[in-house]
Amino acid sequence: MKRMLALVLLAGLAGCGTMRGVSDTVGGWFGSGDSGSKAKPAELTEIKATARLARAWEASVGAGKPYVFSPAGDGQAVYAASADGRVVKLDLETGKEVWRADAGQTLSAGVGVGAGLALVGTPKGELLAYRTDNGKLEWTAKLSGEILTAPVAGGGLVAARGNDGRIWLLDALDGKQRWVYSRQLPALILRVPGDLLLTSRALFAGHPGGKLTALSLLNGAPVWETNVGLPKGATDLERITDVTGALAVDDRLICAAAYQGRIGCYDQLNGNQVWSREFSGLGGAALSDRYLFAADEHAVVHGYDKMRGASLWKQEALRDRGIITPLVVDAGHVAVADYQGVVHLLSLEEGALVGRASTDGSPVPGRPLATAGGLVVQTANGGVYALKIQ
C-alpha cells in the first residue's frame, strides 16, 4: 500500500510543481486491479446464485479517463458525462438517448442532478449547468481549483468543490455565488475528493486531514466539525487521512469513512459521535434501514450495525479487486463493481455473493446509481449499463 501511494503521490508532485502532492484518480490507479497491495487480485470463483442481474440496456457516452464519472438520475432519466465533453440524457426504461450536449472542453467531474439541472465540472474550475428538459446550457460559473467530484443540487441551491480546499454554494437559478468556504490543505492529499451532501439542514463535506463538517446554508459557517480520522506517523505520507468518497445520511445520522482513519456515524444536528471504528478506505459508505456498508482499501466489503457499529459481516472474496463504493439496491441486496467491470450482488444480511454480471471489462470507478429494482453503472471506457435484479 505504501509503495503504491508513494508512486502516485510522486506523480502528482511532478505534475503540480508544489509541495502539495495528489494521487492519480481512482479510475487511474484501480485500472490494473492494484487497490494498494502487492497481492494479486482475487480470482472470481463459482458462486451460489440466488438472484440474477439481467442487463436491461446499455449505452455509450465516451471514456472518462483520467477522471472519474458517475451516472445520476431523477427518477425518469439517467445522466452521464465523459472526459471529452459529452453530456447525455438517457431514458431510464430503455436507455434511448433523449439529448446530447457538447461542452466543447474537457470535463473532469459529473454528473450532479437537481433543481432541473445536470451539472458537470472542468479541470479549470468551471461549473456548467445544463437544463434537464432540453440539454441547453443554462449558465456557467467560474470557480477555482480543478473540480473532481460531482456537484450537488437541491432546494434552489447548487454546491461544488475544487481541489484547492474551497467549497462553493450557488443559486440554482443563475449560478450566482451565495458563499464560498475555504480551508487550508495538508502538505499531501489524495486526488480522491470527498463527495458533498446537500440537505435542508446543511451542506456536509469531508476533508483532507480527517475532518467532517456541516456548513450553514445561510453563510457557509461551520455548524460543527468532527474528526473521522487523525493524522498519525512521522512522514507526510503516513499522516494522510482524507475523508473521501460518499457520505451516507438518514433522518438522524451522517456517516463517513477516511483513508488511514476511521469509519463512523455522527449526529447530524451537533456532530457528536455515535460510534466509530478503525478503518481505511476510499469509497465512503452506504446506508440501509439498519446497516452501514463500506469497502476498505483492499476491497474487502464490510457490513456494520448503523446504530452501534457492531460488525455484521466481512466479505473477502473480492479482495484487491478495486471495489470502491457499495450501493444498497433494495431491501435485501448490496451491489459493488470491480476493476474488470464485473458487478457483484451481495446479500444484505449475510454478505454472501448471490449474483454477478459483466459489463465491458473496464473498471467502474464512480458511484453506481440505484434504480427501481436495480442499478446503473458507468465504466471507465464510457459504457453505461442498466441492470435489473431478477
Report on this model:
- The protein is mainly β and 390 residues long.
- It is 5% helix and 42% strand.
- The protein is built from 2 helices and 34 strands.
- The protein has helices spanning 2-16, 26-29; strands spanning 21-22, 53-60, 72-73, 77-81, 86-91, 97-102, 109-114, 117-121, 126-131, 137-142, 152-154, 157-161, 166-171, 177-182, 188-189, 196-198, 203-206, 211-215, 222-227, 248-249, 253-257, 261-267, 273-279, 286-287, 291-295, 301-305, 311-315, 327-330, 333-337, 343-347, 353-357, 369-371, 374-378, 383-389.
- The chain has a 4-stranded antiparallel beta sheet with strand order 2-34-33-32, with no helix packed on it. It has a 4-stranded antiparallel beta sheet with strand order 3-4-5-6, with no helix packed on it.
- Strand 21 and strand 22 (261-267) form a beta hairpin.
- The longest helix is centred in the N-terminal third of the chain and has 15 residues, at 2-16.
- It is globular.
- The two termini are 38 Å apart.
**In DSSP terms, counting alpha (H) and pi (I) runs of 4 or more, how many helices?**
2
Low-pLDDT runs: 1-37
> What is the makeup of the main sheet?
4 strands, antiparallel
Task: Name the assembly state.
Answer: single chain
What gap, in angstroms, lies between the N and C termini?
Answer: 38 Å
Shape: globular
Strand order of the largest sheet: 2-34-33-32
Backbone CA Rg:
19 Å
The secondary structure category is mainly beta
Helix content: under 10%
Secondary structure: number of strands: 34
Mean pLDDT: 91
**Strand fraction:** 35-45%
